[in-house]
Amino acid sequence: xxxxxxxxxxxxxxxxxxxxxxxxxxxxxxxxxxxxxxxxxxxxxxxxxxxxxxxxxxxxxxxxxxxxxxxxxxxxxxxxxxxxxxxxxxxxxxxxxxxxxxxxxxxxxxxxxxxxxxxxxxxxxxxxxxxxxxxxxxxxxxxxxxxxxxxxxxxxxxxxxxxxxxxxxxxxxxxxxxx
Length: 179
What we know:
Elements: E1 8-11, E2 20-22, E3 27-29, H1 34-40, E4 51-53, E5 84-85, E6 101-103, E7 106-107, E8 121-122, E9 129-130, E10 136-137, E11 141-143, E12 156-157, E13 166-170
Antiparallel strand pairs: 1-13, 2-13, 3-4, 5-12, 6-11, 7-10, 8-9
């Protein structure tokens, strides 16, 4: 399969053709791949002295480098994106939950015989609390309640519909001419 050095193609087989390599981020020796190194440099990794990296398109989609109108800027070799995201409160639209409630306090209609609320009910003054059983309930008091947390923190899969194929890069072939 002929190609231009540095050219990347999708290849549907389970092997890479002669003179081509998988785009899986492998480090390659500069000494045996000087032409490809002169095109890629260390854009995709390597130390630039003995090795350089091939692009890693395993599990990724390619995006054009640069910036189009209204689009984000992508530098050559920039890796971005994730396959799933756990949504946090800050990611959700501002909203409210209407909650209402009432507190009903059991009470004793006569004077209390205790000065402690522990284990007792509200009474009609004297010592304020009673050890007697309640015989009435105070007037309901409207109360603002807080909604408890809900959810399971399960990440949301944001992978677009895809099919597994191999990206291959031409290692040896025709050297591209510059304009």
